[in-house]
Amino acid sequence: MKLQVWTHARIATLAEDAPQPYGLIEDGALAVQDGRIAWVGPRGELPPQWRKGVIVNDAGGALITPGLIDCHTHLVYGGDRAAEFEARLNGASYEDIARAGGGIVSTVKATRAADEAQLLAQSRRRLRALLAEGVTTVEIKSGYGLSLEAEAKCLRVARRLGEVERVSVRTTFLGAHALPPEFTGRPDDYIDEVCRMMRGLHAQGLADAVDAFCETIAFSTAQTRRVFDQARALGLPVKLHAEQLSDSGGAELAASYGALSCDHLEWLGEAGACAMAEAGTVAVLLPGAFYFLRDTRLPPLALLREHGVPMAVSTDCNPGTSPCTSLLLMLNMACTLFRLTPQEALAGVTRHAAKALGLADRGVLAPGLRADFVLWDVRSPAELSYALGLNPCRATFVEGQAR
Questions:
Q1: CA 383 to CA 379: how far, in whole Å?
Q2: Comparing C-alpha atoms, which of 309, 315, 299 is closest to residue 259?
Q3: pLDDT tens, 350-365?
Q4: Is residue 302 packed enough to be buried (19+ CB in 10 Å), middle (13-18) or exposed (0-12)?
Q5: What proportion of the chain, given as a percentage, has pLDDT over 70?
Q6: Which among 266, 173, 179 is positioned nearest to 212, based on CA atoms?
Q7: I need a labelling partner for 361 at 20 to 30 A (CA). Which of 82, 107, 112, 198 fits?
Q8: Which residues fall within 8 angstroms of residue 6, CB to CB, at 6 or more apart?
Q9: Residue 80 phi/psi, 5° resolution?
């Protein structure tokens, strides 16, 4: 593939060790060849061999950033929960809704009933909303099938989404998300089934990682450990929904397995933060769920900063607690609700989000990495976190090719 160069751009490389905030290059050039970044730096320092006989693209003063990464979604599911949302606002309690067959049980029922074509069509609409805002990599969890057949169906749809939309999809098996109706009162038996499912899905090549929901309303640390032991035996990396409703010790447990990430973390304590820092585990912050549930306990940002735990930001797109398909909105919420700085927030959907998925080849604009990048009609990187409801994405490139 012929080398291409983008000029007349301000380039936010997001390089961690850059001397300037955001790794910003005021008058930059970006060279791409064979889907990889060949060179990035000040335009005046562009090597002579890349000044002639190359395709030159005028960025027209755009800001260029790495492609955005949504590192925690439950994008594939059937139905919706809008009626429950309305019922709660009209005074129904969670118990009322559950007795009427609502909650996660309703999503499991709808997901199991949908065929792959229906799931693909519904999920594709959600994915396209993310892609319109410069997302080039997305993680998609299962967890609404809760049987081998239904979980495999969801993960196949997730793989297919990556093919039909030219986006990099990482799949995560979340069988330990909730207890399905047929296992009521038998959580340990269901964990046996989760381990069996994991072996089958791994044999089919459908799972890139394994997740679990470790919480008082979900699965205990002992049950989560059994899931992680099976994942380790299969060579699959783990991540965890941890410390969302209480400090259950989930973060320490996950870190002991070298988890890629711990997500939510509103109740994270000192011991958990220390363990995550030592293990290199990323904290994934999910302001959409915090907002939708009207939570009041903030994630302990000071603690995460003190221990140098990298912080990612994601939509947590799901039907029950964060029906959100805007990563740009999450940038603003991470800043306004959690008080991240705009630089921290942008790193959270690029460099640190890549780390949360175990991907070392993206999230930063540097030679040798994937040429996933976005052109934005803004002057300052902070504008991406500042504006509400505005999408300044001009163009998105995946491995150097316009999407």
A1: 8
A2: 309
A3: 999 999 999 999 999 9
A4: exposed
A5: 99
A6: 173
A7: 198
A8: 29, 30, 31, 32, 57, 59, 64, 375
A9: -155, 180
Which whole-number Å values give the CA distances from 139 to 276, 314, 361, in the listed order? 21, 10, 15
58 within 8 A of 390, measured Cβ to Cβ: no
On the 0-12 / 13-18 / 19+ scale of CB atoms within 10 A, 245 is middle
d(CA 210, CA 199) in angstroms, rounded, equals 11
* Structure tokens, 180: 């399905």
Distance CA 331, CA 83 (A): 28
DSSP 8-class letter at 141: E
Contact call for residues 334 and 315 (beta carbons, < 8 A)? no
Is residue 336 very low, low, confident or very high in pLDDT (cuts 50, 70, 90)?
Answer: very high
Q: Which of 342, 350, 349 is nearest to 381 (CA)?
A: 342
With tokens 């099976």, the residue in question is 230
- pTM, two decimals, is 0.97
Q: Give the pLDDT confidence of 204-263 residue by residue, as tens digits.
A: 999 999 999 999 889 999 999 999 999 999 999 999 999 998 999 999 999 999 999 999
